[in-house]
Amino acid sequence: xxxxxxxxxxxxxxxxxxxxxxxxxxxxxxxxxxxxxxxxxxxxxxxxxxxxxxxxxxxxxxxxxxxxxxxxxxxxxxxxxxxxxxxxxxxxxxxxxxxxxxxxxxxxxxxxxxxxxxxxxxxxxxxxxxxxxxxxxxxxxxxxxxxxxxxxxxxxxxxxxxxxxxxxxxxxxxxxxxxxxxxxxxxxxxxxxxxxxxxxxxxxxxxxxxxxxxxxxxxxxxxxxxxxxxxxxxxxxxxxxxxxxxxxxxxxxxxxxxxxxxxxxxxxxxxxxxxxxxxxxxxxxxxxxxxxxxxxxxxxxxxxxxxxxxxxxxxxxxxxxxxxxxxxxxxxxxxxxxxxxxxxxxxxxxxxxxxxxxxxxxxxxxxxxxxxxxxxxxxxxxxxxxxxxxxxxxxxxxxxxxxxxxxxxxxxxxxxxxxxxxxxxxxxxxxxxxxxxxxxxxxxxxxxxxxxxxx
Length: 455
Prior knowledge:
Radius of gyration: 24 Å
Strand order of the largest sheet: 4-3-6-5
Signal peptide: 1-33
Shape: globular
Order of helices and strands: HEEHHHHHHEHHEHEEEHHEHEEHE
Pfam family, one: SurA_N
CATH topology of the largest domain: Chitinase A, domain 3
Protein name: Parvulin-like PPIase
Helix content: 40-55%
Domain PpiC: 206-303
Keywords: Chaperone, Isomerase, Periplasm, Rotamase, Signal
């Protein structure tokens, strides 16, 4: 896949690297499917990311080590990098699938090594201070005032600080190489930008899609192996693996640095096989592996909207959360009775004005927020809330451990229609697409010129 989100390229320096690494490191921490979230400005109700709605013979079988232009990649390197990915998966990984993942990780480590070496050859060596600064920023984001816990966490999942720092070094080196050898030679004319803006205006009201992609290149010779690897990745994603983490580790598109996020695209911008799949998808769905020219893609539909039209996810909502809690030793029968009482109470509500008095009578808690953006709601709840009328509630959700809740819609301010993208934004988008194409060719040249010995 050759499209590139405008989050990458010229502007995807340390911030994009840090954002992608944050997703990689944070996601494995949440072990249970539903956890009690801490209320924040963006999530005032403390809603969990994953809610429960009430109701409805191999050529790669070899020792996975290599020497790349004299640099040794050890089995420990591979084990620790695999751990960064598999820690995000809730389901156990079969031995055969784990072997395929290890082989793919080895390929990624080889590419990472080539990038670091290429940067050093043209005196763009990444300093240890740069790596440490990014690592400490990431630790502070994840662990606040106790950044030293980052080391403990990585060791606890079978990885190491050194492994993550090597990944940071590879990404900074690649950004440096692109800025030196690719970006200065990419030019976009004003006529091209104006043509795109004109086509966008003509397409107003048609659908566009925000997609994540994991792209694996393949040749005639290794097609079967790459397909097997893609199928293994797809299976892990379906079992709860983090798409962002797998995209960062396995995707060969330069959007890997931002977790595979392509940004907003229209079907005409996609290869026909991907366009056909995206057209049938709903937000939150995965499809793949899909064969496209040059390899295979796994795609994830993050969201969908209409070109130049108001995005409902930008609506500002006024909500009341009504919830009940359970004592740690509550029996199943008592919990069921309390849930039934709560459901009857919710059913009896006739609007937001009824909530506080009635909730007090049954021991329920009420939290209000009148400035919550729809995009900040968990995915399973967002579409439900956006389809509510004023005074209506969601189905009950949650459980005994974190409490049972509903959300009531008390107001909604929809955004105005989106205007045409700016000239600068369109130019940046075109530039990033061209940078991505050249970057892929550059990496192929590095591979072709390398001396790689497998053990």
